Amino acid sequence: MAGVGGVGGVGGVGGVGEAAVAVGAAQHLPVADASIDIAHARWAYFFGPGCEPGLAEMARVIRPGGVAVVIDNDATTSTFGEWFAQSHPGYDALAVERFWRRAGFTRERLLTSWQARDRAEFQALVRIEFEPAAADRILAEHAGSTVDYAVNVWWRRY
Question: Which CATH architecture group holds 2-157?
Answer without folding.
Answer: 3-Layer(aba) Sandwich (3.40)
